Amino acid sequence: MGAARDQVDAVVVGAGFSGLYLCHRLVENGFSVRVFEAGGDVGGTWYWNRYPGARCDIESVQYCYQFSDELQQEWTWSERYASQPELLDYIHHVTDRFDLRRHITFDTRVNRATFDDRTHRWTVETHGAGGPETVRARHLLLGVGVLSTTLTPDFEGLSSFAGRTFHTGTWPHDPVDFEGRRVGVIGTGSSGIQSIPLLADQAKHLHVFQRTANYVIPARNRPLEPDETAAIKAGYAELRANARERPTGFLFPFNPGSIHDMTADEQAIQLEKHWQIGGLPFLGAFGDILFDREANRMVARWWADKVRTIVDDPATAELLIPKGDVFGGKRLCAGTDYFETYNRDDVTLVDVSGTGVERFTPTGLVAEGVEYHLDDVVFATGFDALTGTVVRIDITGPDGETIADRWAVGPDTYLGLSVAGFPNLFNLQGPGSPGVFVTMVTGIEHQTDWIIDHVCWMRDRGITRSEVTEDAQGRWGDVVDAAAAVSLRSTCDSWYTGANVAGKHRRFMPYIGGFPAYREACATEADADYPSYRFATADVAV
Ligand code: NA7
User: CB within 8 A of 427, min separation 6: which ones?
Assistant: First the structure.
């Protein structure tokens, strides 16, 4: 590794898409690196989220690395939307192909990191299978994932429940058999929506406890044919170049026009076209769906009628239609046979929008005053998104302030990457980043490349400390807020705003001004030799 294992140039936290690419680029540029990963292997999100039906909602060919053409050419995706096992195979392939495994310590959590302002190094304390370890590093790079701290509601009596419980975000590695069992699912976000049809196939009876209905579009996943794959591989360069210029960083059929400019018949044809395309590209039907309330309502009404044609029982259909929510305000869900599943006799939708799931009993749970006898309960209850994993690490800057304290009053960042008061630290895809609105892997590559340029620039000049200014951070916060303000998304309760976590500061966290504008802001900063940062060189040669 070129340096003692307890003193390195960079510590990377996480071995998912972010951590692996960070590791690759650091090593490629001659930096010594240790990667710490809480899981037992690489994969991040795709290591943990192994629930039945777990699948990407961005097309596989656009949800993968693009830094190596050899990698692109040698890897063949089998389906339009990759399943969790295929994504994990891909991540393993990348890890081995670029020989990254030897830099990673698995089953190990980073508990604490403290910046030493004398040496300009982070002291990083870990705990894992091999016991505690302390590593000193110039740079602390967080690739901890934006949906990696699971939430399980603190239900009364939960510990008395004698059956099995699972969370979609920490699913067991061994197959789970639900055959002949009475299963309950709590939560109808993407994870619930993907898993419910498969759980229904196995269970003796499935109860779905729904607090809030969600907008679901058929994913229309399918195998990729050999001739399609050949065309994709031949056209990767063009695909990537075009995708980079799109606000989302990925390509899908998009009509920038307004719904108001079409007749009712034309609107229906256009919406049907996008319904047939399926998945997130449904939002590309009209340019004003997420910006104009009436346009949004018109689409929601058309969609509700679709649901009524699929679900046989009218009362169940009405329950599955969100009431008053902005269409696409939460992340749109891509489902496979989701609504059809409610036509099965062995599936019951339970409305828990009133008094909710009240308590667990040894044999099940009580919801809305009714007791349900269950053998297994699946929590599909989401994550403390974007900030949750970062604030659970005790990260202390030179002034003694922790990131958790700093972000308790709002997750301020500069370009989503840097936090004032925390030198030599970069966080990927978190608050202030376009991350969750750009295809993740593309956003990760872009941010990583920017970080690598920054740390190389420091090294070339003998600089050992880099810290963003409060002013620059404040200005970026205004940019993030202004972009959010024009979108209906910011008006919704969702994990984007922190509304799904009791007591969490309420702010629309991602930057939704689009990938091109974000790349321009990052490039402007780098091209001008990082005017938003203050630099210093340590007196001590360590
Ligand atoms: P989400 O989208 O946050 O969904 C969590 C679901 O759990 C949602 O339906 C919640 O209902 C429900 N929930 C949470 N707490 C409760 C309680 N106490 N009682 C009943 N229901 C509850 O998480 P996912 O894992 O599905 O998806 C996260 C992202 O991963 C997704 O957006 C994709 O980007 C991939 P609520 O809406 O709060 O009423």
Answer: 142, 144, 390, 413, 416, 417, 418, 419
